[in-house]
Specification:
- By secondary structure, the protein is an alpha/beta fold.
- 49% of the residues lie in helices and 18% in strands.
- It has helices at 2-39, 61-77, 91-103, 116-128, 153-167, 184-197, 215-228, 242-252, 267-275, 286-301; strands spanning 50-54, 80-84, 108-111, 133-136, 147-150, 172-178, 203-210, 232-237, 259-263, 280-283, 309-311, 315-318.
- Helix 9 (267-275) links the parallel strand 9 (259-263) and strand 10.
- The protein is elongated, with a radius of gyration of 25 Å.
- The model is unreliable at 42-46 (pLDDT under 50).
- It binds beta-D-glucopyranose.
- Beta-D-glucopyranose is lined by residues 56, 60, 62, 137-138, 179, 185, 213, 239-241, 263-264.
- The site of beta-D-glucopyranose (BGC) has 13 residues, from loops.
């Protein structure tokens, strides 16, 4: 009898213990969420959260699309967005803008990584000061950034490679112009592209150089490349203005038989595809990148868990589908 009584007491105590244990876990999780939310409350309570978006080049058409997406989300979620960037691509300038944003204790930073050594320590510095950083367009995977929003650049490079393989016949020498030789996105695109070309011995990449994302530089570099390697008959560009720069070079040299492949859907590229001067382009979704980056920052600031990687869509546009409605 006494033993039965003790068994019942032990069961009751055990159930009580389980109850207290789970109650403790639930309350701790709620507390953690509340602390996270309070930590990221905007510093200027009277204003909307101030988020800085730092571009590679202020007036580049691709970055303007990112800006438009970010501004649309900012309107929707009551964010004060500040779009900024160097007038011409410059790692130093971009680093200064990042330092300035950290020093002015903004509520969040959205930035592209142009060079690991320069950006990773600064991104980590911002995080240690409770300023969340989201990388956009080019990731800084070794940093403590809270998330990356943009293209899966290795896959985009592969897509470019496949576009070339399926639209070019016979044995060909290929020239490549990349945007920035230090940036994560261009490095991955080139790797992806080369990995596909390597599977087709009839295609050889004979030269790779950088345009510094300038149309004029892309044209100058392409002209030099074509003079040095007259056997090149396919040229590809891996940032938004490279293909139209290559097209200028091809026209200057009267080498219109060269097949050009590019990246992105800036207006001139679309026109050139319609006219048959550019064969195809891998199109990213810069508007979606800007929109999603701001939306994710808002989620984070309000204490929600966000995933570390958000890949936006990519597609190939050529003469067949260029007439269809384009995204913003
Ligand atoms: C790249 C950006 C770059 C832009 C330059 C895009 O393809 O993703 O990193 O700033 O081209 O025009």
């Amino acid at each position: 009898m006494a033993q039965k009584k003790w068994t019942i007491i032990l069961i009751v105590l055990f159930v009580l213990f389980l109850y207290v244990f789970f109650y403790f876990i639930i309350v701790t999780q709620q507390l953690e969420r509340t602390v996270a939310r309070l930590q990221y409350q905007p510093k200027h309570m009277s204003q909307y959260p101030h988020i800085v978006l730092i571009s590679q080049v202020f007036d580049n058409p691709y970055w303007r699309k990112i800006e438009n997406g970010a501004k649309e989300a900012a309107k929707q979620y009551n964010i004060n967005i500040e779009y900024t960037g160097p007038l011409q691509t410059s790692i130093d300038e971009q680093v200064k803008l990042l330092e300035k944003a950290i020093a002015s204790r903004v509520d969040g930073i959205i930035v592209q990584n142009l060079k690991d050594e320069a950006f990773t320590p600064l991104i980590d510095k911002a995080i240690s000061r409770n300023i969340p950083v989201i990388t956009i367009d080019a990731d800084a995977p070794k940093s403590r950034r809270i998330a990356y929003v943009g293209t899966n650049n290795f896959e985009a490079g592969q897509l470019l490679g496949k576009a070339v393989v399926s639209r070019v016949d016979g044995e060909r020498a290929i020239g490549v112009i990349i945007g920035t030789d230090t940036s994560e996105n261009q490095r991955l695109r080139l790797q992806g592209f080369l990995s596909v070309i390597a599977e087709h011995p009839r295609l050889q990449v004979v030269s790779v150089t950088s345009s510094n994302i300038s149309r004029i530089q892309a044209s100058i570099q392409a002209e030099q490349m074509l003079r040095k390697h007259p056997n090149i008959s396919v040229m590809v560009g891996t940032s938004a203005l490279d293909a139209i720069g290559i097209r200028m070079a091809v026209k200057n040299l009267h080498r219109e038989n060269i097949q050009i492949f590019g990246f992105d859907d800036v207006e001139e590229t679309m026109e050139a595809i319609k006219e048959g001067d550019i064969v195809a382009t891998v199109v990213q979704k810069p508007y979606d990148m800007g929109y999603s980056a701001v939306k994710l920052m808002v989620d984070h600031l309000s204490g929600k868990q966000i995933d570390k990687e958000h890949f936006t869509a990519i597609e190939v546009i050529d003469r067949q589908n260029v007439q269809q409605g384009r995204n913003k």
